[in-house]
Amino acid sequence: MTVVSNKLFSLSRFLLVCGVSALIFSCYGIKQATFFLKDQARSKPIERLLQDSTLTDSTRRFFTEVERICRFAVDSVGLKNNRNYTRYVPTDSSYLLVMLSAADSISFTTKKWCYLFLGCFPLRSYYDLRDAKRVGRRLARKGYEINIDQVDAFSTLGIFTDPVYSFMQEYPVFSLASLILHEQTHATVYFKNVQFSEELANFIGREGALRYLEAYYGSESQQYLRARRLITDRDVYLKLLRELYTRLGKLYERDISRVEKLKKKEVVLTDFKRLLVDRYDSLFTTELYRGVEKYSFNNAFLAVRMTYNLDLALFERYCSQQGGDLRKVVHFAVGLKKRKGDPKKYLQQAVSR
User: Fold this and answer.
1) CA distance 337 to 256
2) Tell me: the pLDDT tens digits for 229-282?
3) CA–CA gap between residue 195 and residue 329 (Å, rounded)
4) What pLDDT is stored for residue 310 in this prediction?
5) pLDDT band at 1 (very low <50, low <70, confident <90, very high)
6) CA 156 centroid distance within chain
7) Are the C-beta atoms of residues 53 and 161 closer than 8 Å to each other?
8) What's the rounded Cα separation, in Å, for the pair 38 and 23?
9) pTM recorded for the entire structure
10) How far is residue 200's CA from residue 210's CA, in Å, rounded to a whole number?
11) Distance CA 276, CA 273 (A)
């Protein structure tokens, strides 16, 4: 059982609703809610902290950057104007919590955890890594493959004020901006169709962050150019994962024994990891994915990434049709909340007109 950290992109952007009101009837809910409310209680207003003459220059720059990103989110992207990211929580940790997922060993059938009012998700969050590992071991004994990811942010969908954490000061501007814009998209509009919500938030987070860098740093800046390279590498990595997912999916559908499927699965994974090592320099332009061959790439790992990181082409096409105006994309998504049925079908219809 491994713990994966991928803070720059998708895995740092899961919708991790604590759902305090829905969870208080369980021991799990009480414990997670206690951690969450402690963070809320010790958060401090950034506006007040900026008046402190002892504040370090780096922290002051961080607060100023956060405030500017939040203004950009409202004025240029059309996201909700609320009190999110106006408070600060100091912490010794390098991440906020961990996320547990589980899947069958010869299929991508995932375990679901269901929460009142929120729906069912193939994920469960834990503030204490030991709790996640303990539950993971129990699920592993039942035959599940387990994956645990470190996560650095979540949206409470406007129920609470979402803060920034001290470890975020180390993030590149692109990562910080995409995180805030991603989570603010969830706070602006949220669909029970988890996949659609994540695709929308990923698109707005990525495109919004690029435009923020272009507006305040320039399209020739190191920050902007590196962000472009990171996005290119991320797309390559996700394409490789989709190909692996498809290949394994076809294997799992074959009419052969479970033992044979597991043997062939190991061959597929070994070949995939070898490809990542042997062709790294021809596939990627940055060092972001150097060493990922050490990941397990088990079914839980892949199933979650295919849920939360699918093709964003539909959103790109719709945005292009709207003259590149992200505000119109957000406005369209908000309007979809009033309509019944699959929101992605409405988006497909809008793009095909």
Assistant:
1) 44
2) 999 999 999 999 999 999 999 999 999 999 999 999 999 999 999 999 999 999
3) 17
4) 66
5) low
6) 14
7) no
8) 16
9) 0.86
10) 15
11) 5
Question: Would you place residue 20 in the very low, low, confident or very high pLDDT band (cuts 50, 70, 90)?
Answer: very low
Among positive and negative, which fits the CA dihedral 320, 325, 328, 332?
positive
For residue 110, what are the β-bridge partners? 103
Contact of 155 with 162, CB cutoff 8 Å = yes
């042997």: which residue's tokens?
A: 278
Contact 276, 292 (CB under 8 A): yes
- Lowest-pLDDT range, 20-29, 252-261, 283-292? 20-29
Question: Which backbone phi and psi does 321 adopt, to 5 degrees?
Answer: -65, -25
For the beta carbon of residue 3, count every other beta carbon within 10 angstroms.
Answer: 15
Q: Would you say 266 and 106 are in contact if contact means Cβ atoms under 8 Å apart?
A: no
The DSSP annotation for 223-275 comes to: HHHHHHHHHHHHHHHHHHHHHHHHHHHHHHHSSS-HHHHHHHHHHHHHHHHHH
Length of the chain: 353
Q: What is the DSSP letter of 351?
A: H
C-alpha span between 56 and 39 (Å, rounded)? 22
CA–CA separation, 348 vs 321, rounded Å? 13
Average pLDDT over residues 191-203: 88
